[in-house]
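Quick one, T. Sequence first:
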Amino acid sequence: MYRLATYQGKSGPRAGIVTGDVMVDAAEATGEPAYNSVLAILSDWARSSDRIATLVARGLSGGWPVADAHLRAPVLWPSAIYCAGANYRDHAAEMARVLNRPHDPNADRGLPWHFLKTGRCVADPGETVVAAHYSPKLDWEVELAAIIGRAAKNVRAEDALDHVAGYTAANDLSARNLGRRQNLDPRSPFAHDWVSQKCFDGSCPLGPWIVPANEIPDPQSLKLKLWVNDIIKQDSNTSEMIFTVAEQIAQLSRGMTLYPGDVILTGTPAGVGLARNEFLKAGDTVRIEIERIGTLSTRIE
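Structure tokens:
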């Protein structure tokens, strides 16, 4: 078992392999200078994954305690971050209540839909995200993130998970007050503003590392939780998704190619701040935890 991470080296970010409590430099351990970044490893996933797994099975030597490493977001910087909207049944219902619109009981008979975050939105594990000044309605969303390892185009749902290198945890931070332009009729197609709401600096905390897909045979059976200042806010399971990870990949790949390193945020369960009329403020700490993956913490300023 191993984890694929990015750490801050003396000369910049580098790829690391984590086994137990120890990290080694991926390029040095594999003898492949090109494997100095996680994105490079993902771009050669068919070969690199076997090589790393073989080395780990034999036992890696050297390294240093992972607790002493400065972890960065595992993928710096993804070419695209695709985010599933309203993909948990309970979250879709709570948002319908908040937005005073009818809840569609047949939503699972349609197709998954996504919006985009830019790759530069990612924030590192433990990073302080300076955003409280940007939005008085800053919200949290724990999400399972799938990382593409093989290019995917027009794939079937039954084959889609073969294109996933691994999984990590994400927090889809949202500026809820900026989702609509206040000076426009809400019926106008120009009233929505996904960029301002979702794409501000630091709006996608990601990590702490990538767990290879073969260590998570069923991404639809993972507990996921979120705390704000140690108070539980979200507590659910990926089994509650409306559309599975595989179905999302299949839908996205219909019109475009998904490339190695692309990130897919697969939706969030009920318990977001908007439904509670509670929002993040300076000094708050958000901690998320996903079964078999780990913990990701973010401080808000």
